Inverse folding.
């Protein structure tokens, strides 16, 4: 398959790219600062450009989202808006603009995360964004068939424990390679409207 | 208790107001077009004014949200933004601005809905908003204690079946009076971070 991969330079994007390439797929990477196509998909107009540049694809895979982490009382309305634009609306736009452009039986795989169901202090914007994306995935799935849409919702990565481990006390991490396999499962499988949790 | 009730003129707001008044509480109603205080809480600045006018309260109760209903392919980015402002950010602002203002052991009860877990065609914005609010509730709960926060997530109301029944084929409705009791349970109980589902 020809697969559009958003989040080219991140740890997860790199792992997913390797897994998909390893399965024989052609991967077009998109990132703000690296990748085959350099765009910021938080801007709906740049999503359009990405699709125009990429041409016909079979699957769209999201691995990146930007959200602020602060206590609720230190958040501003702008912080929640930025989480909405940085992890929710950008991924919705991949779908909304992608449905008429990708293959008839193509698929979308979006990224959420454990904080939607199991928050930590300072995660209210991240949690909100993850909950929004997962509910959108369930809703879009029943409209876009035979195209498919799923979300991948991992806990903290083993490879990020040194940096983020203190925020996830007592929580068993998941290897990036295992998360990447969930993307493979979503892209090559037949399921839709599923949230693949890894924890 | 002194309770701030958002959504004064809606079917649900009216039922919740009656239930809370029936329990002996003092209810201050807020609505765009009716109620003791007339404000649009989709505007964060008006949320501030509501709290300044209301003075000290023990509980804040949300019963209203505005979201567009259209197929995914007919939605625009602005539609999803309006759902975010009309049902997510407005309720987040009630909490964010309310925490320093309401009673030390006060509570927030927000409104979501069945479409977050069980979508219908055209509900992607509503579903997204409900998922966002429920995840925010779980996240805020672990930060704001001993204040509490819950959400009420009802299916279609018996009293709205004539108008909306066709959108919920085969789905057993719930009486407004029963939904109102879930608000009583959230306001007077000790739970936090809970999503009370009614279906």
């Amino acid at each position: 398959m020809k697969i559009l991969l958003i989040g080219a330079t991140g740890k997860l994007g790199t792992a997913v790219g390797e897994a998909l390439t390893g399965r024989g797929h052609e991967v077009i990477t998109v990132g703000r600062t690296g990748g085959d196509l350099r765009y910021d998909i938080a801007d709906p107009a740049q999503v359009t450009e990405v699709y125009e540049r990429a041409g016909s694809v079979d699957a769209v895979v999201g691995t990146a989202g930007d959200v602020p982490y602060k206590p609720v009382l230190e958040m501003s309305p702008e912080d929640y808006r930025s989480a909405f634009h940085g992890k929710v609306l950008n991924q919705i736009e991949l779908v909304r603009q992608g449905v008429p452009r990708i293959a008839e039986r193509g698929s979308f795989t979006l990224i959420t995360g454990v904080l939607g169901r199991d928050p930590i202090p300072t995660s209210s914007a991240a949690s909100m964004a993850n909950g929004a994306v997962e509910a959108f995935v369930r809703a879009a799935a029943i409209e876009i068939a035979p195209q498919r849409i799923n979300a991948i919702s991992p806990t903290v990565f083993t490879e990020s424990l040194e940096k983020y481990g203190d925020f996830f006390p007592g929580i068993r991490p998941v290897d990036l390679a295992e998360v990447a396999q969930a993307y493979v499962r979503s892209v090559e499988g037949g399921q839709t409207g599923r949230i693949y949790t890894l924890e």
Summary: The mean pLDDT of chain A is 97.
